[in-house]
Amino acid sequence: MSRFSPSDAALEGFRLTRERPGTVLAWGVVYAIGITLIGQLMLAALDPQLMHLVGKRDLAPDDIEQISTMLAKSWPAFLLVLAPVMALTATFQAGIYRLVLRPQEKGFLHLRFGADELKLAAVNVLMVVIGLICLFVEFIALNLAGQGGGVFALIGAAAILAFTIWVGVRLSLVTPYTFAEHKIDLKGAWALTRGHFWRLLGMLVLAVIFYIMVWLLISIVAAALVALAGGAEAIADIRHLGPAALISFLLYLALELILQVVQVVMISSPLAVAYQQLHVDPPAAPAPAEPLSA
To answer: Where are the transmembrane segments (predicted)?
Structure first.
């Protein structure tokens, strides 16, 4: 019988944050550097005219149409930026999985970028594609229901939504499975979750609830810091902030960056624990008995 505990797994994010606060804070710094570099890459890749239009306070109808046209033509730039975003996400995922599954592997703050991270990035892209396909089918069903498809269309949309949730939960351990097994194996991850749908769903719901609790707490503190800095209008131009307000603003930015890292920790670490508890290696075959000597 499996010893998998949904509540224990969902609490793993709190455990990691409590036991490794320095690591989580350092991850926030690394994340900030990564996001800054990616932002600079985006600014360099996108049309300067587009950035000028987006930065305008009052947009005319012609501006909105022009922005839409330029965005449609900027898809190569978005693909260029998507690659480092997926790489950064996979790096932090692997760091979390490494802490839970292979804590003896150190690395820089337990972060590396190698074959495991590349496989995680690839499987994340694959899961996004699967999710987009499911959302597209759901959108079509809801559109048909809105156009007079009647009760059958609504039932179909609900069935597609339920199927999407079922598939998502059954494939929820594909990322820790990929990291632990050093290979992308949807079939293996699917088999690992067989018979555990409801417990995995409960774990995911609890993990999201715990993250929302942390998000609310950090958001309240961040809002208080914004108020101390003079409000949203004041921090729009930090050049005119006083020393105390500037410190409050910098603390606000730090909290926002840490929140992004905490989100990955709170959602990814339960998956690693679930994999660890559900993955049971088969017992080794007994050694053949030696023949009795005469």
So the answer is: 24-46, 77-100, 121-145, 151-179, 200-229, 241-259
